[in-house]
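Ticket reopened. Same input as before:
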Amino acid sequence: MARYLAGRIAGLVLILFMVCLFTYLIFFKLSPDPAVMICGKTCTPERILQIRTLLGLDQPFFTQFWDFLSGLFAGRDYGSGANLIHCPAPCLGYSFQTSQSVWEMILDRLPVSATVAVGAAVLWLVIGIGAGLLSAVREGTWWDRTTMGLALGGASIPNYVLALALQYVLVVKLQILPFPSAVAFSDGPLLWLQSYLMPWIVLATGYACLYARLTRANVIDTLAENFMRTARSKGLAPVLTMRRHALRPALTPITTIFGMDFAALLGGALITETVFGLNGVGKMAADSIAKNDQPVIMAVTLLAAFFVVVGNVVVDLVYTGLDPRVRIR
Amino acid sequence: MSELLVVEDLTVTFPTTRGLVDVVKDVSFTVGRDETVGIVGESGSGKSMTSLAIMGLLPRGAVTRGSIRLNGVELLGRTDRQMRAIRGEQASMIFQDPLSSLNPYYTVGLQIEEMYRAHRGGSRKAAGKVVAEALAQVGIPEPDRRAGYYPHQFSGGQRQRIMIAMALVCSPALLIADEPTTALDVTVQAQILRLLAGLQKETGTGMVFVTHDLAVISSIAARVLVMCQGEQVEYGTAEQVFSEPRHEYTRMLLESIPRIDDEVVS
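Engineering reply: fixed in the latest deploy. New output:
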């Protein structure tokens, strides 16, 4: 087990390193000169050179990459003498647009994305798994057919369509909810809940539909397993048969998919956050791409990759806890 | 000898898209206490459906007619709750594929224990002792420790031993074994058969042994029921059926056994 864990963590570090390298390479090779962008409209060639030296852009690629990497762990200094700017670890550089520390921007916005992700996850797990279970138990009934039809439809609606439709109906027409804005919990729990409700529903809808279909399929497969016949032949109560023998095998595979979906969402829900004006990592990504703010683009890419890779390892570890066939060989 | 199980004119009907189909037609046989009755037939002959009908485990939609009496009590027409009290307690069943018949997510100890406690109640600790005894009885070494193992950690033969331990943990009057040795190696087959025969002698359990393998039947059953396409084609003592088969189908079955002194056709 310890060796397995060490192997997984070594793999994780390697993958993250590769992600860093390739993202850096892409932005280094494919993007316009950042010095020109920072310099702005009233710019002299001397000023551009100055900025290049300050950011280390005059250095060869691997030196720059090394500076970036070591900055992540040890912090780095820009410039020298009186102009020295110390960027403490983990240093992701400064936004070309606002000159803010990118790390601080992320710290600022991550809670918003996490709130969006956690709320949506709770909704889609409860609704998706619940509906899927009911459908599986009542396979072939009108309930099953209606739910699965709706699930197919729901999974096919693009997020931005649903987001705009919800906004139109709930905010503009019925005026049940206020126009969505970035609200902190400290501004009042009700207002907070109201401003997150629509993003949660929008994100949860697609996932809930997929999870309902997945749960239904898994439970139906499990109910047909030989060990279910054994459980019935033992004279166990139906509740115990269902809960112990059917649910655990049926729901275990769902943890895998959930872990990955949730991790991906932590990296920011780009469309939903943008439509609802939430200042999360997703909106930060959208803004930075629009303005070609390279340090920010780099950071959100790395952050998303980090969540996905770590999420995968966490899923594997959880799975070994859930499935004895993986745990004990 | 008073009869333990009496099956009379059992008919099992399934609704299909092509109308009603009788998968078991007018089958009658009896099993005495500590007697083994074999049911033989090829796939689809209705032998498994007959045993599932006795347990009340037929798939949804199946309709049964006739009579199944266990210890003089009619089983057909009972509610599900009443059947649950009988399943495992008075009649239990072992199946063909022991690996898929055990739940991979739970230790074998728990899977035996839950059955014992469903019928007899009591603490987990008390049940744990019973589980260890049951495992020891079927020849699992170190039963206390092995009870904490998962099904995939055992060999095929051991898994079937565990199924047998589970089936017998509440000392049922009737054991239905549905092709219990089919998925096993020949050498393991012999061990399992010996174990079943030994346990039966020891506990006095009546047994219905379902198989397509005539060689297995001849070694374990006193009486044999031959089924073909849902119908009972022959019923009598093993000796009778094997030495002077009255029905063409039985003769065909017997002739289909390859013999070591057969001429090799090349």
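Residues 190 and 262 of chain B are 23 Å apart (CA to CA). The radius of gyration of chain B is 19 Å. Please confirm and we'll close it.
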